[in-house]
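Render this sequence as a predicted structure.
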Amino acid sequence: MMYSRVNILCEGQSEEIFVKKTLSPYFSNYNIYITPIILGGVARYSGIRRELKRIGKVSFSYLSTMLEQTQYFGGF
């Protein structure tokens, strides 16, 4: 049976809890296993980029983010 792994880069504990309690149980029914990774302490895009590069070196299927757009990338 095939499965997929997804790492989600989270802004903080609220997003981590949402991933663990809502997304993970739902997607595990479809053989998609989700792991939250807390960003923590990074306040600029350059820090996020550094984390994405570091995480990207780990073997997994997909990577996503759960961040507040205005905090890291400015308003519209």
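Summary. The longest strand covers residues 4-10. The chain has a mean pLDDT of 81.
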